[in-house]
């Protein structure tokens, strides 16, 4: 698939062995140094400027713009202004590239790229990669407080390493979190009593303070809502396929060597042998059986190859949802296409991305804020 041409193979998701260990160490250290709470807060305030005093908002579209700016400014140190200028050239180019790569026929039958090569799409992909290389060159000249700058401090990293890791973080870091935020706010809007519980917790813990990491150690209900939302509508349905060199026993089955294997995380999250009533949206399951359910929760994958940016994504969600509920009451429109259940749009890459999620926002009464 042309997706591999775009993200390359010199990155934390596609590499193996000692190369992967090096990428993993560098990526974890860079992300650990950059949990940009202040930047998240600033982007939420920009989001509020768009929502204004309330009204109907296509939340699934707005959450994509928020997460795109969050990843771009903190990973790349570059502002694409997706919130302020949704029609900007880079944002539009990204959507065109991904739409072209995700042609269903070419995803279902990747060998078509050999038989009927799409030269125009390849040129579009290469041009988009060139834009990232230009940003990397600019970042070398003007370092900042971002993931790329920290990666540049590693002498073992090559130009291909920088390019491929930047692209894969950019692509993987905003679509999945946008899907998670679309789902979480949808459920809060659908269940008003649940929304009020989370709002009361946020007001008690944060008050009018700017969100900090320490706050969210004391927001179990908010954390449970995020976990349950990501369980119910897992943003990434399957892991990147892996291949074992040896026969691999799984229960009573032995998988032959060189067989591509992927973990179906959505199926794992709806396994009735593991989860009680998995078809119900029940955040309190993470409060009742916190340890057991936490071990079965695999939204970011499992093992050493779990998503390295999981904490980044969780804090990004916590900041937005906590500030949003402090400012607005969310309601699901009566004519919503998602009235009875949440519907995802088509995704060629097995992502759960709710589409057309309209939410009605109204300012929270002043008496409700401390």
Provide structural commentary.
The protein is mainly alpha-helical. It has one domain (2-368): Cytochrome P450 (Cytochrome p450), CATH 1.10.630. Helices cover 54% and strands 7% of the residues. The protein has 16 helices and seven strands. Helix 4 (59-76) runs antiparallel to helix 10, helix 5 (89-101) packs across helix 8 and helix 10 (159-190) packs across helix 11. The chain is globular. The chain starts with a helix and ends in a 7-residue tail after the last strand. The model has no long low-confidence stretch (mean pLDDT 90).
- The outline comes out as globular
Quick one: CATH superfamily? Cytochrome P450
Give the C-level CATH assignment. Mainly Alpha
Q: Which percent range fits the helix content?
A: 40-55%
Oligomer: single chain
Summed up, the domain count is: 1
Distance between the termini: 53 Å
Name given to the CATH architecture: Orthogonal Bundle
In spatial order, strands of the major sheet run 1-7-6
Give the beta-strand count. Answer: 7
Stated plainly, the CATH topology is called: Cytochrome p450
Element string (H = helix, E = strand): HHHEHHHHHHHHHEEEEHHHHEE
Number of H/I helices: 16
Q: Low-confidence stretches at least 5 residues in length (pLDDT < 50)?
A: none
Structural class: mainly alpha
Pathway: Secondary metabolite biosynthesis
Cofactor: heme
GO molecular function: heme binding; iron ion binding; monooxygenase activity; oxidoreductase activity, acting on paired donors, with incorporation or reduction of molecular oxygen
Family: Belongs to the cytochrome P450 family.
